[in-house]
């Protein structure tokens, strides 16, 4: 497995040169303002063919690409620190769901759940307000944009180990907001899995595997 020139944060997976000298292997961001998920795993860097497959799935209706990502994430599952009870996809805004006709993250999650032998819970998490597209926003504006944008159903997630699934991790703002909603609803443990990470363009973390 390719590794970074420098270690990655054991919680968010981002490259962080000082990780080895940290008492718990976490980056400064996770030490001061940790996300509600305990670890983050991805199948590929968001580049080249991996990026094309995401775009085909997301915007061209090629839902068969979800099978590829589920296969890749099934391989990554061997690294997970939990045995998941549920896979919960990050929901789309209602308008975008209606325009697209499907949620690309749910398409991956459904197939991954079959591969892992667990349940996909599409109604475990919902958007409770419309948000602007994240593309083009600064990190701070992304966090503001999705703050309190999600709510989770305690009846579906409380006491359970949850894999939170999204297609691409960019700044982590959406994932952090979604994970917080799951935590507030009583999820026992949350691990983030994404098909791609945008911050892995140059190199890969020990927590991640390049798409073949």
Beta-strand portion reads 15-25%
Query: What sort of overall outline do the alpha carbons produce when their principal axes are compared?
Result: globular
Question: What's the story with the biggest beta sheet?
Answer: 5 strands, parallel
Task: Specify the structural class.
Answer: alpha/beta
> Which residue ranges are poorly predicted, with pLDDT under 50 across at least 5 consecutive positions?
1-6, 201-212
Distance between the termini: 11 Å
Query: Total helix count?
Result: 8
| Strands, total number | 7
Helix coverage percent: 25-40%
Radius of gyration computed on alpha carbons: 16 Å
- Name the strands of the widest sheet in spatial order: 1-7-6-2-3
Which properties best describe this structure?
single chain, alpha/beta, 34% helix, disordered N terminus, disordered C terminus
What does this structure look like?
The chain is α/β, with parallel strands linked by helices and 212 residues long. 34% of the residues lie in helices and 17% in strands. The protein contains eight helices and seven strands.
SSE blueprint and pairings:
Blueprint: H1 28-32, E1 39-45, H2 48-59, H3 65-76, E2 86-89, H4 94-100, H5 104-116, E3 119-120, E4 125-127, H6 139-146, E5 150-152, H7 154-157, E6 161-169, H8 173-184, E7 189-197
Parallel strand pairs: 1-7, 2-3, 2-6, 6-7
Antiparallel strand pairs: 4-5
């Amino acid at each position: 497995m390719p590794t970074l020139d420098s270690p990655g944060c054991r919680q968010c997976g981002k490259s962080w040169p000082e990780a080895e000298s940290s008492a718990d292997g976490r980056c400064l961001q996770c030490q001061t303002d940790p996300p509600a998920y305990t670890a983050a795993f991805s199948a590929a860097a968001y580049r080249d063919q991996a990026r094309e497959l995401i775009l085909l799935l997301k915007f061209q209706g090629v839902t068969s690409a979800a099978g590829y990502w589920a296969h890749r994430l099934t391989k990554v599952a061997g690294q997970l620190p939990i045995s998941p009870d549920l896979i919960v996809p990050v929901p789309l805004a209602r308008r975008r769901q209606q325009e697209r006709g499907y949620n690309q993250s749910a398409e991956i999650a459904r197939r991954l759940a079959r591969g892992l032998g667990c349940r996909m819970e599409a109604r475990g998490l919902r958007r409770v307000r419309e948000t602007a597209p994240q593309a083009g926003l600064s990190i701070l504006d992304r966090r503001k944009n999705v703050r309190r944008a999600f709510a989770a159903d305690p009846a579906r997630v409380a006491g359970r180990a949850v894999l939170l699934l999204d297609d691409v991790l960019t700044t982590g703002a959406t994932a952090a907001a979604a994970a917080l909603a799951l935590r507030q609803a009583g999820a026992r443990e949350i691990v983030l899995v994404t098909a791609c990470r945008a911050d892995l363009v140059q190199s890969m973390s020990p927590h991640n595997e390049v798409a073949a």
